[in-house]
Design a protein that fits this description.
The chain has helices at about 10-25, 45, 55-60, 70-80, 100-110, 140-150, 165-190, 195-215, 220-230, 235-245, 245-270; strands at about 5-10, 30-35, 50-55, 65-70, 90-95, 115-120, 130-135, 155-160. The chain is an alpha/beta fold. The protein folds into two domains: about 5-160, 3-Layer(aba) Sandwich (Rossmann fold), CATH 3.40.50.720; about 165-270, ProC C-terminal domain-like (ProC C-terminal domain-like fold, Orthogonal Bundle), CATH 1.10.3730. The chain has an eight-stranded mixed beta sheet, with helices on both faces. Helix 7 packs across helix 8 (about 195-215). The chain is elongated and about 70 Å long. InterPro entries: 6-PGluconate_DH-like_C_sf, NAD(P)-bd_dom_sf, P5C_Rdtase_cat_N, P5CR_dimer, Pyrroline-COOH_reductase.
């Protein structure tokens, strides 16, 4: 990328991204500036060659790409702090802050600043995030560049910004939904005779295998389900029992309710 990147607010997401960028050779550690109020927390990153600072203005001045990764309640103060150092001709601003629109960021930094809104999920910590991004004014070149940036820590989908709350429900809350399904499967395993640790290991790997089948084969879930269901067999009996008890409909309803809740929360935040 040959550009300097400043990550303002180097918490879990910011640090996971920084590690991913270097691991994928997208950027050198020396080209990434990490800011945090207490830089003692960044000691190991400084030792690894990253630039660390508690001066946001200086970090912005020395960078080309600004990644805003502070808590939502800290954002306005940070935007006020760095606004004088932002140059719309030089800087691209990326926000990973939940519920904050591109327009809200530009209101503080200037209408001509290119802003891209990005929403990773917690699997960014292991380089397996499902990241959604949106912008209403960024160039195609910058969209492509930011897509490649976040592909270092998982998969990326570009969406319309008005779908960000829906993406929150499906991808961010969705991590919890699939984890709960795995937990339930492991509990079922205990009930049919396995020790808890065995059942969990078996459920986790089976879930991972199911997901990888779809990712690697590019197939639809039902086509893979057909391969494991036989007439009068045990799989179809189990599936039908789950459906009779609302398995699919409860998941759909949960995602819809989470999206509604996320939208209401964001309205209150703004």
């Amino acid at each position: 990328m040959n550009k300097k990147i400043a990550i303002i607010g180097s918490g879990n997401i910011g640090l996971s991204l920084a590690k991913g960028l270097v691991k994928a050779d997208f950027a050198q550690a020396g080209d990434i500036i990490l800011t945090r109020r207490n830089i003692n927390h960044l000691k190991s990153f400084a030792e690894a060659g990253f630039v660390v600072s508690n001066n946001n203005n200086q970090a912005v001045s020395n960078a080309d790409v600004i990644i805003l990764a502070v808590l939502p309640q800290q954002l306005n103060a940070v935007l006020d702090e760095i606004s004088s150092s932002i140059d719309s001709k030089k800087h691209l601003v990326i926000s990973v802050i939940s519920g904050v629109s591109c327009v809200a960021v530009r209101e503080k930094l200037g209408d001509d600043v290119e802003v891209i809104r990005v929403m990773p999920n917690t699997a960014i910590a292991i380089g397996q995030s499902m990241t959604c991004l949106a912008s209403d004014n960024a160039s195609d070149e910058n969209i492509i560049s930011v897509t490649k940036m976040f592909e270092t820590v998982g998969s990326v989908v570009k969406i319309n910004e008005d779908l960000m709350t829906s993406a929150t429900a499906l991808c961010a809350c969705g991590i919890a939904f699939f984890l709960r399904a795995i937990r339930a499967a492991s509990q079922g395993g205990v009930e049919i005779g396995f020790h808890a640790d065995e059942a969990l290991k078996m459920a986790v790997q089976t879930a991972k295998g199911a997901a990888d089948l779809l990712l690697l084969h590019g197939t639809h879930p039902e086509s893979e389900i057909d391969k494991v269901t036989s007439p009068k067999g045990c799989t179809i009996a189990g599936l039908n029992e789950m459906e009779h008890n609302g398995f699919s409909s409860s998941l759909i309803k949960g995602i819809k309710l989470s999206a509604l809740k996320a939208g209401n929360l964001y309205t209150k935040e703004s």
